[in-house]
Amino acid sequence: MRNKIALAVVGMTSASVLMACSSSESKFADELKAAGFGTVQPTTETEKKTKKVGTKTVKSSTKVLEAVVRVKGCDLEFEKVSGQSGYWLDELHVNGQEPEWPGYPENLRKQQVETLLADSSQKPAGFTSCYKP
Fold first, then answer.
1. Which residues are registered as beta bridge partners of 56?
2. Span of the secretion signal (predicted)?
3. Count of CB atoms within 10 A of residue 102's CB?
4. Number of helices followed by number of strands (H, E) in the chain
5. 96 contacts: CB under 8 Å, gap ≥ 6
6. Which residues make Cβ contacts (< 8 Å) with residue 50, sequence separation at least 6?
7. By the 8 A CB rule, do 28 and 65 touch?
8. What is the pLDDT of residues 44-95, one digit of tens each?
9. Distance CA 90, CA 102 (A)
C-alpha cells in the first residue's frame, strides 16, 4: 500500500513539473505570438553552474526558454530566462549551424525583426543564404 502511495506521489510531482515547464514554454510562445510572430516552436534548456565558496561547492541552475520562429526565410532563435521579463534574439539557424546574433537585440516585434533583417547592420555568418526579402 505504501509503495502505491509513494508511486502516486512521484507521478503527480513529475506531472506538475512537466506542466510547469510546458506552462512557461506556452507563455513564452504566447508572448512571441503577441509580438506578431506566427508559428513558434518553444523548448527549454537548463544551464547548470557550480561555484566554489570556501570549502563548499554551491550548485545553481537557470531555466532558459528558447523558441524558434521563421521570418523572411530565416529561422531565428529567441531566448528568455524563466521568471524574468523580456527576451532577446540569440541565434540564426542556417545550414546546420547556429551562429549568434550580434548585439542580442531585445524585445523585438515582428516588424522590427523584418526591419533588422533588411537594414545594413551586422548579421551572423550564413545570413544571406536564408534571407528572402
1. 53
2. 1-20
3. 11
4. 3, 4
5. none
6. 57, 58, 59, 60
7. yes
8. 888 888 888 888 988 988 999 999 999 999 999 999 999 899 999 999 999 8
9. 8
The set of cell numbers assigned to 23 is 506552462
Give the span between the Cα atoms of 120 and 111, in whole angstroms: 16
In the block, cell 521568471 appears at: 83
The alpha carbon of 11 is separated from its chain's Cα centroid by a whole number of angstroms, namely 27
- Could you tell me where the DSSP H helices lie in the chain? 2-34, 110-118, 127-130
| Domain-wise residue ranges, the chain | 2-130
pTM of the model: 0.74
Q: What is the DSSP string of 15-83?
A: HHHHHHHHHHHHHHHHHHHHTT--SEEEEEEEEEEEEEETTEEEEEEEEEEEEEEEETTEEEEEEEETT
